[in-house]
Amino acid sequence: MHNHALTPTGTLTTGPPSGTVISAENLTKTYGDVAAVDGISFAVPAGESFGLLGPNGAGKSTTMKMIGGVTRRSAGKLSIMGLDPDTHGPEVRAHLGVVPQQDNLDEELRVRDNLLVYGRYFGLPMSYLKPKADELLEFAQLTDKAKARVDALSGGMKRRLTIARSLINEPRILLLDEPTTGLDPQARHILWDRLFRLKEQGVTLILTTHYMDEAEQLCDRLIVVDKGRIMAEGSPAQLIREHSTREVVELRFGSERNATIGAQLEGIGERLEVLPDRVLMYAHDGESALEQVSARGLRPLTSLVRRSSLEDVFLRLTGRSLVD
């Protein structure tokens, strides 16, 4: 029952979206006394792009490994396409595409052969794999690299090849763990474009990230995770509306003065966050807040008015920034 997935010939097949494809209830994973994932619950409908946003060590990768069936949960319920990954691992994995945090391509093999060999693991026939590999190389913009060695590829190309490889079995759900870490801005944008296209084909995307711009770009809905727990859930726009103001004024007074100047800014805007390197002033109208700063005779070294982002939401919920 494919839902807008590409068939081997590259044509779209449309089917009805099939309700919830992933559901977790009180999902928990403990290592000794430490709860890496501490009782989280969420449900993902078919075709949604669902994100887990949080700093490193928040429990995002552990959650992904439980969904992918490579780590057994300690407690709670988990269902993927109606199946429990602990008891139906192979069937669950047949529906999943997994893009791990570290590319684990076979450096010895050429680019196209990476796809073919991986497809053989699924027992897929060569008559299917050869045209599918060519279609995926085109999708990943790697057609001219088909015969290149993997170790000759750039980081962005390797990432695209890892994604292409994860699509060989036409998964209905794609798990992406930190998909663009370490990539330059252009490579990230190419990758985002490829992920948008998959979403348009009806593939359900689950991704972890600690980049708020990535979460804002790619996720229909996300959970903000910190220390193994869910702090908030909603669409990026919803979360910003609920937990922040429309605009933020970033002021830098020089590292020694940021902390002391906080008191002189009281009463401007709705609230202040004093960080070691800057002061964040939350206001509905950033420009008018900045005028009030000047009217008090305060002269920041730099000032910037911007829209609120998920970074601000995270700071509000946890008291610290995403990238510590």
Automatic annotation (TrEMBL):
Domain of life: Bacteria
UniProt topology in membrane: Peripheral membrane protein
Subcellular localization, as worded in the UniProt entry: Cell membrane
UniProt keyword list: Antibiotic resistance, ATP-binding, Nucleotide-binding, Transport
Chief localization: membrane
Residue ranges annotated for the ABC transporter domain, each copy included: 22-252
SUPFAM superfamilies from the UniProt entry: P-loop containing nucleoside triphosphate hydrolases
TM helices/strands, residue ranges: none
GO molecular function: ATP binding
Family, similarity comment: Belongs to the ABC transporter superfamily.
Protein's UniProt name: ABC transporter ATP-binding protein
Organism expressing this protein natively: Arthrobacter sedimenti
Top-level taxonomy: Bacteria, Bacillati, Actinomycetota, Actinomycetes, Micrococcales
